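Dear colleagues,

As part of the handover before I leave the project, I'm documenting each prediction I ran so the next person doesn't have to rerun anything. This entry is a single chain, and its sequence is reproduced below.
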Amino acid sequence: MAKLEVYCGPMFARKTTGLLESCIKINKSVGVVIYKPVIDNRFAENDIVTHDGVKASEYGIEVVSKPTDWSLTKEDLTQLTKANIELVGIDEAQFFDDADTIVSLLVTNGFNVICTGLDLDSSGNTFGKMGDLLCLADTVVKCTSDCSLCGDRATRTFRKLSAPTRSKVLVGGGEIYESRCLNHWEQGMQEWLVWLSNEEKS
C-alpha cells in the first residue's frame, strides 16, 4: 500500500535535504517527481535546492512548480501513471491550499508521497494544511535545527525584526528568518509585540 511520509520542523532543519536524499535513493529504481509552490523561487524556478546547495536536477529528478491553489486532477493522475511515477515529493507543502486533498488522492491512487513543510509559522500557529498532513502521515520526521542565539535545539522559526510586516506569508531565507529554541523564540515574540504596539501608535 502507498504511504505518506512527512518531514516537518522550523527553517534550516534539513527538511528538503531529507526529501531529496529519499528521492535520490529511490530514483535509481522507480520514477520520481517533486512538486513545489511557484512562489518559492528563492534558489531556482523549476528546481529544488537545499540550503547546502544540493539540486534535484543534478540527480535527474523532475521538479514541477505549481500555483498555491493547485488542485490535483484526473489528468494529473493519468500523466503520473503513464510516466511510471511511483514516488511523489511535495516541497514546502504548507503553501498549498489543498495539500491534504492532493496528498490523499495521490496515496489513494497508489503513489507513495513524501512532503516537507513548516508545521508552525513564525507566529507559532499551525501553517496551512500541515496539521492535517501530520494526522494523515504513516511516518512523521520531526526535524530540528540549532538556535541562532544559543545553539540549543531549535523547533521554531523566528521572523527577524529587520523584516517587519504583518503578512503571514513572506518567502525568504536567512535574510528574513532564523531558527530558535522555544525560549529565545518567545523572547523574540515579545519584541514583536513592542514593534506592533509602536506601529499602531504611529
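The longest helix spans residues 182-201. The CA atoms of residues 4 and 73 lie 19 Å apart.

All the best with the project,
I.
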